[in-house]
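Supplementary Data S3. Sequence and structure tokens for construct A.
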Amino acid sequence: MKLFLLITILAISGCSNMIDKQVEWETIEPENYPVLRSVGYAPIDSQRGNNKTAKTLMAIKASKLDAYRELAEQVYGQKIDGDQVLANLVIVDTQLQASVEGVIRGARVIKSYPVGENSYATELELDFSQVQDIYLSTAKPRKVKKVRYY
């Protein structure tokens, strides 16, 4: 009797793959979207260039990259590696290294302006509703809305 019951259960579960189904999907929307802001700075005189105009343009680009780095830190976090060397139970050397890695899409420059006589600043904004739109256009995340079996 037990063997017959086991064979019947296996036969029924094996036939379940033969049932057709229709799955309806819907996209997932968060309730609210944060807006992140960052500011990047760069010195003008330290830039490479033959004249003040070339150095200023390089500082504008460097400040924009610094602002993107700050946005990446806010989105992905920062990786910190540390190392200490001991000799005779005395710390001889301490090293810290920080890095950030990520892709930022959809950020826009709010403004770029000089700060004092020797620095440049760039302000960026990252609106996550726009990031969501970019993500939906490429990834199409979905969840099961309804399943109908035939």
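Construct B, processed identically:
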Amino acid sequence: MKFAADFRSIARNALSGKWAIAVITCLIASLLGAASANGPELKLDISDSGANIVFQVAGQTVYSTDYGMNPDIAAWILGGAVFIILAAIAMAAIYFVLGSIVEIGYMRFNLNLIDRREEPEIGTLFVYFAYWKTAVKAKLMQTVYVFLWSLLFVIPGIVAGYSYAMTGYILAEHPEMTAGEAVEKSKQMMSGNRFRLFCLQISFIGWDFLASLTLGIGHLWLTPYKQAATAAFYREVSGTEYTVCAGEGDI
């Protein structure tokens, strides 16, 4: 049985010589709603000193007016709140659908990276559009299930999140499965392995702290590292580990 250090080692070996494409692919995936919990956000803050509009992508501020906007103009913008809300709902729906599809593609990218049977390509992010309904249903089921378990208490919600964590990887390899089948298989696969995934994630806490000191820039490299390690974790818990040719090492 492998431990967190083993999965990190596998990830580093797989990323050797592939950091550039891994970082670029992760960045694109994040912008499209995968590999990150935060998508594009537009925030409006009004105070006595003025108004500030902030545009963020993946949790990082891309543009800010720095309270340079006249409060009257900001108030006029708020007057169209209904239209803004409707537009926001539409954008959120589109972003959810797109993110659900790209997320599975990104998981396939990381499996290719770990397996080293074929060159990882950025285009892998978009190969599951034919299965968009399954991708969206699976993501929606996970979201609803985690939310419902969270109503009981915080801990059950966290446990549920770990139970369904492998759903995307399963669909990346078996897109013909239904969303329900993938969710159920993930639940079975993670039985007895939830704490192991938690330990893997918590093992990056030191790197998370260091990345935060770089104003988030370090996460451009840290996130691909985490995702590759999680793909290696999936390979073990799913029993689908692949051994590369002699002389290349055992992944």
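The chain has a mean pLDDT of 81. The beta strands are 41-47, 50-57, 60-64.
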